[in-house]
Amino acid sequence: MGLTQRVPVLRWARLALGMPSFVRTGQIGDGREAACAAFVESTAPHGDIDAALSAIDAFARREAMLVNIGDEKGLLLDAAVRRAAPALVLELGTYCGYSALRIARAAPSARVVSVEFSAANADVARRIWTHAGVADRVTCVVGTIGDGGRTLETLTADHGVGVGSVDVLFIDHDKNAYLSDLRTILDRGWLHPGSVVVADNVRVPGAPGYRAYMRRHEGTRWHTVEHKTHVEYQSVLPDLLLESQYLGPATAPGDERPPTPHAAR
To answer: What is the pTM for the complete model shown?
Structure first.
């Protein structure tokens, strides 16, 4: 059997019923996130990243659907991270810590800083990272990029995120915030030419404004590859994962923002 499976209708139906809770709180509302952490702790050997990831995948397939990147798209994220060979990765959207764990495995010398608006999800992720043995290099900051500057200042003051420091940015949080948060990070100058931005779920649930932005600036500010793939943990519903390399401040006519003085290192 391949990485994915056909659509598990009943478990997807339960997930859909939990979406209002997820939008409000970041959790589905039935305790599945904490149950996932307990499953990892009880089934994966301590300090084994591969086993922890496999346990999360098994839980999502057999017990309760999770809204992390999943195994199929996870391989694309792994490859993008390895190509970038990052020292610092910034992630927007921690959920249960699965993608940060994949990033930590793909870049064993990198620091990973993940931003998550749900404190409960942050606790789940930290449990899993601790059990997998990566808590010394993977950190969760509770907040959002759009909270008026509090999280941005925390990232700078406490986690060393600054001008030209972010080698990989992984975006997998509120789809409506993909573009605005990317623009904020660009305005801060945190990316450098060669930085890689990976965005999940660009087709489902969808981030059309983000996709249009990357297409509009193809070859000027960005070079983007659109990976055709599937929504996590099934093989029917199509999705897109975008992998974009930052080329630097645009000089071509039509760019909607002038380059900032600190936009490259």
So the answer is: 0.90
Whether 78 is catalytic is no
Q: Can 187 be counted among the known catalytic residues? A: no
Q: Which of 172, 174, 181, 243 is the catalytic position?
A: 172
Q: Which of 25-29, 239-243, 249-253 has the lowest mean pLDDT?
A: 249-253
92-128 confidence digits (pLDDT tens): 999 999 999 999 999 999 999 999 999 999 999 999 9
3 occurs within a structural domain = no
Q: Is residue 261 part of a domain?
A: no
41 assigned to active site? no
CATH at 219? 3.40.50.150
To the query of whether residue 175 is one of the catalytic residues in this protein, the response is yes
Annotated active-site residue 153? The verdict is no
Number of domains into which the chain is organized? 1
Under the banding of pLDDT at 50, 70 and 90, the label for residue 11 is low
Q: What is d(CA 91, CA 77) in angstroms, rounded to the nearest whole number? A: 12
Beta strands in 120-254 (DSSP E): 138-142, 166-171, 191-199, 222-230, 238-246
Catalytic-role residue among 57, 71, 200, 243: 200
Catalytic residue of the set 175, 181, 239, 243: 175
Determine the structural domain holding residue 178 and report its residue range.
9-246
Check 71, 232, 239, 243 and give the catalytic one: 232
